[in-house]
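Hi V.,

Quick status before I head out on leave. The structure for the redesign project is tokenized and pasted below; the design run finished overnight.
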């Protein structure tokens, strides 16, 4: 890394810290210069300057008319190397993690808040069990039990010859086949544990910079708030430090996954032993099942016991849970494999393993948990109504239901495709092929997909019609804004249509509510249908009208095909993104939005990039203002504005007085304020407005993502929002603009002359530059001794780069 530039004392120094939005960009594009140098950071996230500005603090006369620009590039945190494409398979885990942060705001319902967090974590745990159960369904049931037990299926596949039941080899016994087939599901769980542990060491286990207790609204001993001041959640010292919680959740989820595999092995062998009569094998089966049940209860208890610690930097680890819980589960899995491999010469495999019960219980439990979440969320919303919270506080339960639906689609997709591959030309589950097929519930879950698509067609057509009508009505409004210009119907229609389409973002809550509600109802019907068909195999529609029976069978077949297609598309996207950097950046946009939040519900979700980016920005702002006494404006576009606001919240009060915030194309209120009201609602954003010396927000009516933050003038400060910027800047051709100007929408806010003007106004409103302070640690920040706990923050993991002051 190049050496950091020197920054001697220069009164009047000013800095603009640029933070890009979703999808990322290059420092050359951000600084509008092909020659840039890295000031501080690494290949993952770093701060850049133009080469000519490297020692700008030594030449303040060059910047009398404006600040020194710096660019913070963080796209490597979400769309870096090819392995990030594999995160696409973790989509349900990421979605359920979002549900944790969507609870309604409250100040007096601590019990309800804790209960909401417990319910979300239990839904997340059910997704881990569901994923592992799907892997067991494929490996143990479809391959080892059904295909290897069928001469017609195993005979056409040479790679299954040594497992074939009629081969007479050592592996031909069903229990031994199951023990060997348990390796892939167990390896999947171990892989998830490894990835979670590696990212935990690089993100959650890295200590963020922290201020003195008073700077964070805490008493000097760190035990509570300073009287009269309550810090917003994102300003708490432990908000971006989830080391303890993620370690505990990782242990519990790893144990739950391994226990799922152990239960599948033990259950199959124990049923055979109990059918043959009592004895040592039967007693051993009961003992193993009891051990699995007890360890599973401990895993659930670990998930429910404690939530996040945000009011302090919690350096402790629950070592007993982190170490012994996965170890006990792994030991039980090994014992279960040995128990299943016990010689049982008379055991024959036929039919299917009892997967219907497992998937039915999981689906029912997920629905019950989501309904409980909805009840708690409604209670919280009724106690603190107001703002523009989506779905009246039900955004979190709706997103949790969506995560369960995604998990079901992936589970059913892989099971249906593998069964179709093994069954050859026959249709799985019809009894016409060599195998019985996947559980009936998975086929029923697939059958609801065509119905769901038909239900979505109605609101989609309604939104399209409403957008067309709105675009027609906006025509006169657009022409009125460009008074004095000669009307151009084509130009007017184009601008009006762009504005109308930008409003579609506000319809997302209604669509999500429709999808989640329909998924819950149709999922209930799928469980009931699977139960009826399981009670009387093949006769679920025997008494129905022929048209109803034909429609149901068609829906099942079409849904099975759509589920398999969806899974294949998901895998194809991941493979393409692994090889293609541009596709990886496109998928990275999804992670930019979804992985802003820490892993509070699911430890196997993709890691939170803000746990690196927010400390980076806070360190840079504090170190630069502390060393130069100058003024700083942090300028954030789109998702960068969210990072900028979160970093400003983390600043000590003294540093915050020397920082101005400029946001543009910002989703702070339009998206984050509505979907995450407890953290970006009117109260937290209003507190940020009061704490900052000055803040300005730029927005356009053609922007589908950004919008106003709706904070009025308060305490002598002007309102935050600038009036809506014109887009395009010029309606028609002029001498200054002889060619038609583009409609910019969400991008290129710097092209508007208002941008530079508002940045200058912000800098002028900041207090005059201070004399150079004595060399010391940046204000409010203190170095800490190395952590002696597990996975401590030693080394050069990404989070450590923020310690460089530049």
């Amino acid at each position: 890394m190049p050496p950091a530039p020197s920054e001697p004392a220069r009164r009047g120094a000013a800095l603009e810290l640029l933070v890009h939005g979703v999808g990322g960009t290059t420092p050359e594009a951000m600084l509008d210069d092909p020659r840039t140098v890295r000031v501080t950071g690494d290949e993952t996230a770093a701060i850049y300057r133009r080469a000519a500005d490297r020692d700008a603090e030594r030449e303040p006369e060059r910047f009398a008319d404006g600040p020194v620009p710096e660019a913070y590039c963080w796209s490597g945190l979400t769309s870096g190397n090819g392995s990030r494409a594999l995160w696409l398979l973790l989509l349900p885990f990421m979605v359920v993690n979002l549900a944790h942060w969507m609870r309604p705001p409250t100040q007096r319902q601590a019990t309800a808040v804790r209960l909401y967090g417990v319910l979300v974590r239990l839904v997340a745990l059910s997704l881990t069990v569901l994923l592992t159960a799907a892997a067991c369904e494929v490996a143990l049931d479809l391959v080892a039990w059904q295909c290897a037990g069928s001469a017609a299926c195993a005979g056409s596949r040479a790679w299954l010859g040594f497992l074939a039941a009629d081969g007479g080899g050592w592996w031909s016994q069903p229990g031994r086949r199951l023990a060997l087939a348990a390796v892939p599901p167990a390896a999947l769980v171990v892989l998830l544990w490894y990835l979670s542990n590696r990212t935990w060491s690089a993100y959650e286990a890295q200590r963020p910079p922290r201020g003195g207790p008073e700077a964070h609204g805490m008493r000097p001993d760190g035990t509570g708030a300073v009287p009269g001041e309550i810090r917003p959640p994102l300003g708490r010292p432990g908000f971006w430090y989830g080391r303890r919680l993620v370690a505990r959740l990782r242990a519990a989820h790893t144990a739950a996954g391994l226990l799922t595999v152990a239960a599948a092995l033990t259950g199959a062998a124990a049923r055979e032993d109990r059918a043959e009569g009592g004895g040592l094998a039967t007693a051993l089966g009961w003992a193993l099942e009891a051990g699995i049940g007890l360890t599973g209860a401990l895993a659930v208890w670990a998930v429910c016991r404690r939530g996040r610690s945000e009011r302090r930097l919690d350096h402790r680890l629950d070592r007993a849970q982190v170490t012994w819980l996965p170890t006990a589960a792994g030991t039980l899995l090994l014992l279960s494999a040995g128990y299943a491999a016990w010689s049982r010469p008379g055991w024959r495999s036929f039919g299917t393993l009892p997967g219907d019960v497992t998937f039915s219980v999981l689906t029912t439990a997920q629905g019950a948990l989501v309904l409980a979440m909805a009840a708690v969320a409604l209670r919280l919303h009724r106690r603190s109504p107001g703002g523009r919270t989506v779905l009246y506080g039900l955004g979190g339960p709706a997103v949790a239901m969506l995560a369960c639906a995604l998990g079901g689609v992936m589970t059913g997709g892989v099971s249906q495709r593998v069964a179709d591959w093994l069954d050859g030309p026959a249709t799985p589950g019809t009894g016409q092929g060599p195998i019985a097929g996947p559980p009936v519930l998975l086929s029923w879950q697939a059958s609801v997909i065509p119905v769901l698509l038909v239900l979505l067609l109605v609101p989609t057509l309604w939104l399209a019609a409403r957008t067309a009508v709105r675009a027609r009505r906006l025509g006169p409004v657009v022409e009125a804004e460009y008074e004095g210009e000669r009307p151009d119907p084509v130009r007017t229609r184009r601008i009006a249509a762009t504005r109308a389409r930008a409003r579609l973002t506000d319809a997302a809550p209604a669509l999500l509510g429709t999808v989640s509600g329909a998924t819950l109802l149709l999922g209930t019907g799928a469980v009931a249908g699977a139960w009826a068909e399981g009670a009387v195999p093949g006769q679920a529609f025997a008494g129905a009208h022929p048209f109803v029976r034909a429609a149901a069978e068609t829906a099942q077949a079409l849904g099975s095909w759509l589920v398999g297609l969806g899974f294949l598309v998901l895998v194809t996207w991941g493979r393409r993104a692994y090889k293609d950097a541009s596709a990886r950046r496109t998928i990275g946009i999804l992670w930019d939005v979804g992985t802003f939040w820490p892993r509070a519900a699911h430890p196997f979700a993709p890691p939170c990039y803000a746990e690196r980016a927010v400390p980076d920005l806070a360190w840079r702002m504090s170190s630069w203002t502390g060393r130069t006494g100058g003024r700083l404006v942090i300028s954030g576009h789109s998702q960068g504005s969210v990072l900028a606001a979160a970093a400003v919240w983390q600043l000590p009060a003294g540093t915050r007085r020397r920082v101005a915030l400029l946001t543009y194309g910002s989703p702070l209120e339009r998206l984050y304020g509505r979907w995450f009201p407890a953290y970006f609602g009117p109260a937290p954003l209003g507190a940020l407005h009061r704490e900052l010396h000055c803040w300005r927000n730029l927005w356009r009516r053609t922007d589908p993502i950004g919008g106003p933050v709706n904070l009025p003038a308060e305490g002598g400060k002007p309102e935050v929002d600038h009036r809506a910027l014109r887009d395009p800047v010029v309606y028609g051709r002029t001498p200054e603009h002889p060619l038609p100007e583009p409609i910019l929408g969400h991008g290129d806010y710097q092209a508007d002359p208002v941008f530079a003007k508002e940045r200058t106004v912000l800098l002028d409103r900041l207090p005059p530059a201070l004399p150079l302070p004595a060399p010391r640690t940046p204000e409010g920040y203190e170095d800490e001794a190395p952590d002696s706990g597990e996975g401590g923050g030693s080394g050069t993991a990404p989070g450590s780069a923020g310690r460089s002051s530049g």
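Above is the designed sequence. The two ends are 11 Å apart (CA to CA).

G. will cover questions while I'm gone.

Best,
W.
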